[in-house]
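Intended use. Records like the one below are meant for learning the mapping from a protein sequence to its folded structure. Do not use them to infer anything beyond what is encoded.
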Amino acid sequence: MLVAGAQASAADEPIINLQAIVNNAEAGSTVSLPPGVYAGGIVIDKPITLTGGHDAIIDGGGEGTIITVSAPDVAINGLTLRASGASLDREDSAISVLAPRVSITNNILEDVLFGAFLRTAPNSIVSNNVIGAKDVFIANRGDGIRLWESEQSVVEGNRIEGGRDSVFWFTDEVVVRDNEVTGGRYGLHFMYSDGAVVEGNVLSGNSVGAFLMYSRDVTVRGNIMAENHGPSGYGIGFKDMDRVTADGNRFIGNRVGMYFDNTPYSHNEHEYITNNLIAYNKIGLLLQPSVKRNIFSNNAFIDNTKQVGISGSGDFSGNDWSHQGVGNYWSDFAGYDADGNGVGDVSYRIDDLYNTLTDKHPDLQFYQDTPAAKAITLAARAFPVLKPRPILEDEYPLVERPVMPTILTTASGAGTVPLALTSAAMVAIAGALIVLPMRKRKLRSREVGT
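Structure written out for the chain above:
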């Protein structure tokens, strides 16, 4: 189909006037695009469905935003959008949405600054899209997905690679599920978004897996956060949060598995951190010394270089390392269980002098595992006067790794592949995630059990 007035591309490929097609469509109709190349820079100002196959390509020509949606109840499905502009000031995007109840599904977005950018677009859906980025320095890229004041929306099953962040600001009750985010700065970034549900996502190879700030009543469940190694390198970070539930997640091979800063924020709140695998990170948990009222129970801390660290100096206290007689599993626990009840008969304590020094002076980590570091530890054991105050004490340490909730992820929309894995198999997969994740551009969908 060729519309009158079409231009020719540099390769003499006909460019179809898509704006004219949209203008001629009736409200409520479905516009199905046959294969071809269509001119971007269009505005959809009426409720229509714009669909086709991935060989229906909407080309922005490297200028501005490809599709702007200003009407509610618009659906954009199954298309390829490519070559937006590159202006951060103008926030050039593949799709810019300014109205509620918009559906963006099954599209491929290539060579775009921002991918899907929704402003005041509540009750919208962004699902099963493949979202790329501009090949520029990461700070000059746009966000793969950004939602602003778009409450009760669903972001599900997308694959986002190489963007800057995926951002959710002032967006209450958003569901972010089964997405795969790789090669970015912040895989997921939440601010002032109460009641969010974050589950089943695979966040790997970013600077930070997820960072949540200034929000409350957030559920973080069943996610995999692996190999995030930027300057901070958090699998997940919490700042000024209240009523967080973090349950059944896997934090594997990050610089820091979980980071807590002034969380919980309110003095009458407690956070429950349960059933998480925290394995092979340089630091399993990193907490600011003023952090209090967190309850850690039934988590598995496996072979982290430092199981728990304190960021800076101060009197670290006020967190609970067990709940109702159930502590955590620590791979370096050297105690015993004489009565066979599954709980160690002595407490698990972190009171290593060398690690205490590295908390206060991070540059000393350079000497980790050297004879000098070991000598400091041995000296503290030989001369109790040198022994520091314990960083933590788990009075009910588990002597066997707990069985953790199954993770069911359909990230990348490739379907569900059930894997009946035992606890030992999960540890083997954890090791594989450290070595292999960045060799594969796409993590296959999986069901992971521990």
